[in-house]
Design goal:
The complex is a heterodimer of chains A (442) and B (252). Chain A has 442 residues and is an alpha/beta fold. Chain A contains eight helices and 21 strands. Chain A has one domain. In chain A, β2 and β3 form a beta hairpin. With 252 residues, chain B is an alpha/beta fold. Chain B has a domain of 172 residues: P-loop containing nucleotide triphosphate hydrolases (Rossmann fold). In chain B, α5 runs parallel beside α6. Classes of the chains: A alpha/beta (442), B alpha/beta (252).
Chain lengths: 442, 252
C-alpha cells in the first residue's frame, strides 16, 4: 500500500472500516453481488465541492468513519418498539412490518388478498431471486449518490418485497416502519413494489430513531414498478432524530404502459437527509407524480435531487416539492425534466416552493429542462419567499394571534403537498405528524 | 357609558401622504351608519386604519370602542374586543380550510385550556352557510382560494355571523355582487341588526342601502365628513352625484 499523498485527505473508503455484509446465510449470488459492490464502494471517490451533483450541499455532513451495521436490539427494546410502532402506525393497513436495526420484529400480511406476495427482503432473496434481480434498481441509476448506492448494495438488506399479480387490487396501505439506534449504527432498508398489469397497491414506510441523538445512518432504496395499467402509491415519512441521524434514500419509479405511480415523501427529522428521486416514464400512457412536503428547522439540511425522464411518447409527470424552513435550516432542490429523443407529446411539470420562516434559512433551487422531442408541454418553476404580511393580517383581523397565524399559514403551505400523498386517513396521519413538529418548535 | 364606536379627529397617512384629515363620527350601538363618498375620499383607508393595518399610520386623533382605546390594541386584540372588518378584497390563504380558519378564530376567543365544541361548531356553521346560500363544499376549501368575487363577499359575511362582533365595518361589500347575492348578503346583515350591535357600511353606491337601510348617512370627502343626514341623503346622492355637496363649502 502506498501512503496517501496528502495526509489531510481522508482515505476513499474511510466512511466504513469494513464491508457491512454480515449474514452468511444469505444466498451466494447475493453475497457475490454484495462483495462486488463493496469493491466499487471502496474505489468510488467521496463527493467533492466541484461535483455538480453535490452543488450547494454541505459536504461536512458526509462523515461516516467507524460506521457499521446496527447491532440487534435487546428483547425489551424490541417489545417497546413494537408497542410504539402499533401505537403510531397509520390506520387501516393491509399488511404491517416493523424493522429495528435491520432486524424484522413483526410481519402481518393477513389483510392481503390471495396471490399477493409480500415478504421480508431477506426471505425474498432466498425464495424469489429472479424477482429481486430483475426489479432491484441498478446502483448506477442515481443522481450523484453512486458511492452511497454501492455501499447500500454491499450490505445485508432489511425491508419488504411486494408483488401484486395481474388485476390484484389492495385497498389499505402496506405499512412498513423502520427504526434505527446505536452509535455509528447503519441500517439498509430496501423496498421493491411491483404492480403487474392493472394491479393496484399503496405502501407507506417510515424511518424513525430509537432514541434521540445517536449518530446513525439510514441508507435506503425504494424501487417502484408499475406494469401495464398498474397503479402504485408510495409515501415515506422521515422523522429521525434531528441530532445525529442522517439518511440517504434512492426512490426510483419505473412506469410502464398506461401505468401510474405516485411517490411521496415527508421529511421532518434528521440532521441531514438526501433524497434522490429517479422517475422513468417507460411507455406511452405512463404517468408519475412526485410530491414532497418538508419542514426543516435548527441546522437541518435537506438535499433533494430529482429526475423526470420521459422515455416514450404520450407520457406525463408532475413533481411538486414544498419546503418550509426555519432558523438556519437549508434545502437544496435540483430537478431535471428530461424528454428523450422521440418522446413526443410529453406533458411534464416541476415545481419547488420554499417558504422562508426566518432571515437566516437558505433555500437553493436548481430547476432544469432538457427537451429532445417535439410537441412537448413542459414547465418548471421555483419560488422562495417569506410568509405574506397580508395573509397574516387577514388571520389576525379575525382574532387569531400572530404566532398562531404564522403557524396556520405554514401548515397550510405544506398541506398543499401533503393532501396528494395518499388516502384521506394517511393524509390526516401525515398532517398530524407535521403539526406535532410545529408544536415542538414553540 | 359610551356604548359606541367613536372616531375623533382622525388623521392618517399612507407612505407619508395624508389621507384622513380630521375625520369625526360616532356610531352608537343599535344603529347602522353608512359612509358614502367619491373615489379617493379615504373610505378604504378608514377601514384599514380601524382594523390596524401597519401600512396606515395614525398621526393625530383617536378611536374608541365602548370607551376603550382601539388604536392601542393589536390587530387580533381588536377583533377579540368585538371589532370586525368585512374586507373589500379578502385575502386568499392557500392550504388553510375555511372550517379550520373559522374554528381557530373562535378558539382564539376562548379562555386558555378551553376547547371548542366541534359538533356544535359545525352545526352552527352549516346553519349559517345555508342562510347565505353557501355550498357546504366551501368548508373544506382553502380560504377564499378560487372563490368568485361574490363567494368571497359571502364568506366575509359568514365570518361576521360566526364571530358576532359588536361593531362591524363593511368595506364596499356590495362591489362585485350581482343583485341576488347582494340581497342575500343584506339579509345576513339585517338578521344581525340588534340593540347590542352597530354597523358602519362603507359604499360607493346607494344600491346596497336599499337593502341595508341606514339610520344615518355620512358623506366623506378629502378625508373628512362633510355632510351628515338621514337615509334619504343616499337617494339624493344617487340622483345628483357628489358635486353639489363637495363643491358646496368652498374650502375654508
Amino acid at each position: 500500500m502506498t501512503p496517501p499523498k496528502e495526509s489531510a485527505a481522508p482515505a476513499r473508503h474511510a466512511w466504513f472500516d469494513e464491508s457491512p455484509a454480515r449474514d452468511a446465510a444469505l444466498p451466494g449470488w447475493w453475497r457475490e453481488r454484495a462483495a462486488a459492490a463493496w469493491g466499487r464502494f471502496v474505489e468510488l471517490e467521496v463527493p467533492t465541492r466541484t461535483d455538480q451533483a453535490w452543488r450547494f450541499a454541505n459536504l461536512a455532513h458526509l462523515r461516516f468513519e467507524g460506521h457499521g451495521p446496527a447491532p440487534a436490539v435487546s428483547e425489551s427494546t424490541a417489545a417497546d418498539l413494537l408497542a410504539r410502532a402499533v401505537g403510531e402506525r397509520p390506520a387501516g393497513h393491509a399488511a404491517h412490518f416493523v424493522f429495528a436495526n435491520n432486524q424484522l420484529l413483526h410481519a402481518d400480511t393477513s389483510g392481503l388478498p390471495e396471490g399477493a406476495l409480500c415478504l421480508s427482503f431477506a426471505e425474498a432473496l432466498a425464495s424469489q431471486p429472479d424477482l429481486v434481480r430483475s426489479r432491484l434498481g441498478e446502483a448506477a441509476d442515481c443522481l450523484g449518490g453512486e458511492k452511497f448506492a454501492a455501499l447500500l448494495d454491499s450490505a445485508d438488506p432489511s425491508g419488504v418485497v411486494l408483488r401484486l399479480p395481474k388485476g390484484c387490487v389492495v385497498e389499505g396501505p402496506v405499512v412498513v416502519q423502520h427504526y434505527v439506534g446505536g452509535e455509528r449504527a447503519a441500517v439498509f432498508p430496501r423496498t421493491i413494489v411491483v404492480a403487474e398489469d392493472s394491479a393496484s397497491v399503496s405502501l407507506f414506510e417510515s424511518f424513525e430513531s430509537i432514541s434521540h441523538g445517536d449518530e446513525t445512518l439510514v441508507l435506503a432504496s425504494a424501487d417502484l414498478h408499475a406494469d401495464r395499467g398498474g397503479r402504485i402509491r408510495y409515501a415515506a415519512l422521515q422523522d429521525l432524530s434531528d441530532k445525529g441521524a442522517k439518511l440517504v434514500q434512492f426512490q426510483r419509479a419505473h412506469a410502464g404502459r398506461d401505468a401510474s405511480i405516485q411517490a411521496g415523501s415527508v421529511h421532518l427529522g434528521a440532521e441531514w437527509a438526501r433524497n434522490e428521486s429517479i422517475n422513468r416514464m417507460l411507455a406511452s400512457g405512463a404517468d408519475v407524480r412526485v410530491f414532497s412536503a418538508n419542514l426543516a428547522n435548527g441546522e437541518q439540511e435537506y438535499d433533494q435531487r430529482t429526475l423526470q425522464s420521459h422515455q416514450a411518447q404520450h407520457t406525463t409527470s408532475d413533481l411538486f416539492f414544498k419546503n418550509a424552513l426555519y432558523d438556519t435550516a437549508r434545502t437544496i432542490f435540483s430537478g431535471l425534466i428530461h424528454v428523450l429523443p422521440g418522446a413526443h407529446h410529453t406533458d411534464s411539470y416541476q415545481t419547488c416552493r420554499n417558504l422562508l420562516g426566518s432571515d437566516t434559512a437558505e433555500a437553493n433551487s436548481m430547476p432544469g429542462l432538457e427537451i429532445d422531442a417535439d410537441q412537448v408541454k413542459c414547465s418548471h418553476g421555483s419560488t422562495s419567499g417569506a410568509i405574506s404580511d397580508e395573509e397574516i393580517f387577514y388571520l389576525r383581523a379575525r382574532g387569531i394571534p400572530a404566532e398562531a397565524a404564522r403557524r396556520m399559514i405554514s401548515l397550510g403551505f405544506l398541506h398543499e403537498a401533503i393532501e396528494h400523498l395518499g388516502s384521506e386517513s394517511l393524509c390526516d396521519y401525515l398532517f398530524a405528524r407535521v403539526e406535532r413538529k410545529f408544536a415542538s418548535l414553540g | 357609558m359610551n356604548e359606541s364606536l367613536k372616531i375623533d379627529n382622525l388623521h392618517a397617512s399612507v407612505d407619508g401622504q395624508p389621507i384622513l384629515k380630521g375625520l369625526t363620527l360616532e356610531v352608537p350601538k343599535g344603529e347602522v351608519h353608512a359612509i358614502m363618498g367619491p373615489n379617493g375620499s379615504g373610505k378604504s383607508t378608514l377601514a384599514k386604519v380601524l382594523a390596524g393595518h401597519e401600512d396606515y399610520g395614525v398621526t393625530e386623533g383617536g378611536v374608541t370602542l365602548d370607551g376603550e382605546d382601539l388604536l392601542a390594541m393589536e390587530v387580533d386584540e381588536r377583533s377579540r374586543a368585538g371589532f370586525f372588518l368585512a374586507f373589500q378584497y379578502p385575502h386568499e390563504i392557500p392550504g388553510v380550510t375555511n372550517a379550520n380558519f373559522l374554528r381557530a378564530a373562535r378558539q382564539a376567543r376562548l379562555p386558555k385550556g378551553e376547547e371548542i365544541d366541534a359538533v356544535a361548531f359545525y352545526r352552527e356553521m352549516y346553519e349559517k352557510m345555508d342562510r347565505l346560500g353557501m355550498d357546504r363544499k366551501f368548508t373544506g376549501r382553502s380560504v377564499n382560494e378560487g372563490f368568485s368575487g361574490g363567494e368571497k363577499k359571502r364568506n366575509e359575511i359568514l365570518q361576521m355571523m360566526m364571530l358576532e362582533p359588536k361593531y362591524a365595518v363593511l368595506d364596499e361589500t356590495d362591489s362585485g355582487l350581482d343583485i341576488d347575492a347582494l340581497k342575500i348578503v343584506a339579509e345576513g346583515v339585517n338578521a344581525m341588526r340588534s340593540p347590542e350591535r352597530a354597523f358602519l357600511v362603507i359604499t360607493h353606491y346607494q344600491r346596497l342601502l336599499d337593502y341595508i337601510v341606514p339610520d344615518v348617512v355620512h358623506v366623506l370627502h378629502n378625508g373628512r365628513i362633510i355632510h351628515t343626514g338621514g337615509k334619504e341623503l343616499a337617494l339624493e346622492l344617487e340622483e345628483k352625484g357628489y358635486d353639489w355637496i363637495t363643491k358646496e363649502p368652498v374650502a375654508a
